[in-house]
Amino acid sequence: ELELLSSYNLRTEDGSYFEPGSYLELRSWLLGADATNMAYMLSTKLAAMVLNVEAGFVSGTALVYAPGVIEGTNFISINNLINTANSALGGDEHKYTPKGHPYRAYQELVTNALDSALNNLNFIYPSP
Fold first, then answer.
1. pLDDT tens, 99-123?
2. CB crowding 8-41: b at 16 or more within 10 Å, else e
3. Residue 53: pLDDT above 80?
4. Phi-psi region of 75 (alpha: psi -120 to 50; beta: other; left: phi over 0)
5. Residue 123 in 3-state DSSP?
6. 3-state DSSP assignment of residue 88
């Protein structure tokens, strides 16, 4: 799992890349997250969802309601949401997004979509 997470654009509080070396390091990083840097908060939600998919707790093809994340639709699969979040963390211009940063609002939108999915609030079920 640590190696898997290292393949994503996960960020720390200061915007540097996060590559967990141990369970304790990962745990501390997850528990220490705040939204001072939205890229950090988005990273923790992304990591949690990646681990849920990898463990088989969430299907990557499941649809969630996430208006605004992808232009032209209000729905996105978990796999596409993971890829979108990872892209939203890539590049130097997206690594540190404090209040007032022009990219912060989009990262917050993706963060909220992941958070809702992690809390089972926005899944679209094919039948009752």
1. 999 999 999 999 999 999 999 999 9
2. bbbbbbebeebebeeeeebeebeeebebebbbbb
3. yes
4. beta
5. strand
6. helix
**pLDDT grade, residue 127 (50/70/90)?**
low
Closest C-alpha among 40, 57, 53, 119 to residue 80: 53
pLDDT at 128: 53
Nearest to 85 by CA among 35, 57, 26, 45: 45
CB 64 within 8 Å of CB 118:
no
- Residue 50 burial class via C-beta count within 10 angstroms: exposed 0-12, middle 13-18, buried 19 and up: buried
Partners of residue 123 on adjacent β-strands = 64
**pTM exceeds 0.85, yes or no:** yes
